[in-house]
């Protein structure tokens, strides 16, 4: 019971954070139009970073057994966001004003508002079929779109990492070892899209498990 209340409080906190971000983005767009897109990171970036930092707890929840989700798919999804948000976007001010940042934030928060709403109700044993269907169906088209947006954000950032030398390391003599960070990002693109294929397969299996005919009948009853 205590762990269930803790998970409910965690989901509620994340729901409030992502709902605030999502609502803020919509209101700003309706008020300022396209001008609001370039200022997305500066307006909501702090709250977004806090939400993503707290999401690391979800890996811990799975490791200690209070969350029954599969570890690897969740680990991939969380680390992808952490790397793109903190390493790529936060470190390069020139990237922060790109429209792709707004697209990423919109996709992430749309998915998370639905997911944390579903999780909160599930902690209380409440299952609404439309919400269940939305939770396990919406992620299938939107997650690959978010991966494409992450890849595009990385590609946009490459010229700035090349010109500024951010995170590139060249060790002094007698070492002949150096790390050219744009190469690291290019290799990570391969990992990103390989991980997408694995995660999408897991999303389909989760959808089948939760929206199978038998499960739907049980939840209706």
From TrEMBL:
EC number(s) given by UniProt: 4.2.1.134
GO biological process terms held by the UniProt record: fatty acid elongation; sphingolipid biosynthetic process; very long-chain fatty acid biosynthetic process
EC top class, as a word: lyase
Primary localization class, coarse: endoplasmic reticulum
Superkingdom classification of source: Eukaryota
Localization (cell): Endoplasmic reticulum membrane; Membrane
Pathway(s) annotated for this protein in UniProt: Lipid metabolism; fatty acid biosynthesis
Any one Gene Ontology molecular-function term assigned to this protein's record: very-long-chain (3R)-3-hydroxyacyl-CoA dehydratase activity
Membrane topology classification: Multi-pass membrane protein
General function of this protein: Catalyzes the third of the four reactions of the long-chain fatty acids elongation cycle. This endoplasmic reticulum-bound enzymatic process, allows the addition of two carbons to the chain of long- and very long-chain fatty acids/VLCFAs per cycle. This enzyme catalyzes the dehydration of the 3-hydroxyacyl-CoA intermediate into trans-2,3-enoyl-CoA, within each cycle of fatty acid elongation. Thereby, it participates to the production of VLCFAs of different chain lengths that are involved in multiple biological processes as precursors of membrane lipids and lipid mediators.
UniProt protein name: Very-long-chain (3R)-3-hydroxyacyl-CoA dehydratase
Gene: Hacd4
